[in-house]
Amino acid sequence: MSALCLATGKLLLAIPIASFTLAWTHSIEKVRWEEDWEISGKHLLIREARIRGSGAGMEAPPGARLQAGVWHYQPASPPMASVALSHSPYTAGYELCTPHCQLLADLLPGIEPTALIQLSVCTPEQTQSRLDR
Fold it and tell me: Which of 25, 26, 67, 85 matches a 20 to 30 Å C-alpha distance to 101?
């Protein structure tokens, strides 16, 4: 089974999932963004993104469609080996939805107040070592 690894410093968490939604609130406009991701082999693929409004630097890209006040679009991003996210006490935290949403920081107890959270596909060794605990 596929697993998503969340890593920061010495903290590592393997979550056995094949897809997830990454969500956050824009720090200035206070508008929610969501991205639907899936695990494909050793890569993370973004399938769809949504912006619940527009504002400074948040315009929906060409081809986006507005549905019930939410812009939906398909980002033109290549498969990614990892995704780096900044954790900071100055902005709202990122949420991982699988399907229920939970703050990434809550999934990584002991995370530093400012940290880089790395999302990647777990190796079989990482998955096994974390799930056996």
Answer: 67
